[in-house]
Amino acid sequence: MRFEDTYLNDNILDALDDMHFDECTPIQERCIPEILDGHDIIGVAQTGTGKTAAYLLPILSLLDDGGYPKDAINCIIMSPTRELAQQIDQAMQGFGYYLDGVSSVAVYGGNDGNRYDQEMKSLRMGADVVIATPGRLLSHIRTGNVDLSKVSFFVLDEADRMLDMGFSDDILQIAKELPTNRQTIMFSATMPEKIRQLAHSLLRNPVEVKIAVSKPAEKIRQSAYVCYERQKLGIVRSLFKSGELSRVIIFSGKKDKVKDIARELGKMNINCSAMHSDLTQQERDEVMYEFKSGHKDVLVATDIVARGIDIDDIRMVINYDVPHDAEDYVHRIGRTARADREGAAITFVCESDFFRFRQIEKFLGKDIVKNPLPEELGDAPEYKVTEKKASHGRKRHSGKNAPRHKQRGGKGGKKSQSRRSSSSFSTGSDK
Q1: What digits encode the pLDDT tens for the residues 8-64?
Q2: Contact 247/315 with Cβ under 8 angstroms?
Q3: How far apart are CA 270 and CA 291, in angstroms?
């Protein structure tokens, strides 16, 4: 399906033409018409499938067509992290290039007082689209800076990540401020029971759209080291001695462990930085700038980087700990071998992780190559998995199928009224 064949309005299509986006991705093809038709949506899709555009494009098209309150907040988009909020805001600027009357503001923590004052001013003036992290938006609600009584669209992006980060109560609190007749759109990479419960409490007769988790790119050389916890730093030292040093991300699931790893790597004279949720926004920006610009060789990070931050030239991803599930594994190693490059993904597997790692291998449909430990590290545990219960936990509108012949001509082109069809695009990470 091409965007040209959808019923998005002309101003949106002009912007997509300028950005050289022609064809919809599957999540967009299935979600765009349902959103245009006013349905609540629960979409299950991993990062990189184009879900940001799947909800932004139809919402912006509807807002641009008119009929919504002026000088009022019409859309709230919730994001688990500042980084994703910034990305959504950047996508909004691109898609909305030809939209004269649709304004937006990104609202997230970790900024100075000047930023907060700017957010407050935009919220009080009624920005059409507010992209926010839960804690920051609640702060503005409590201080009376924001009126959400006229919101028509409520979007939860990466809902599973928000729940994992403890934002469930915040989201429910924010939802109480919204009109009951709003349209609610929820996206999640996974669909555990807690997400279904949240969806049941927030959505009305939602259309469920599920896009299967794709397998990792073929150009990623996947392998693993079966090891004891105490041997992991030795493996890292050995890998970097062999020359695989620059453009590396090391993932760990806990921020305290990220700090410890970065400190130990520093003792090895490895040029690295740590990225975790304790950093201020300015510190995060500095860390990412240093890594992207090549001033740092290694980035040690929690999963905050696995979802949403777009870096094309990563040569190696090291899973210092086995990810929680197959989806997280795919997200992490998907940072490498992008833009037709090759890359390596190495996972350290301790005895306590055997079951989870075997589930990842089952999802991939193959055994991941097990590398021999460097001789100086001694013997490794035997990789042996007993099949037991895991203890770690975790109507389509028929529409009109005829192509729409739109009158081109940039801002001066004739606007279409929003009509319904089927359509979806992906840029880099998830725009």
Answers
A1: 999 999 999 998 888 998 999 999 999 999 999 999 887 667 889 999 999 999 999
A2: yes
A3: 13
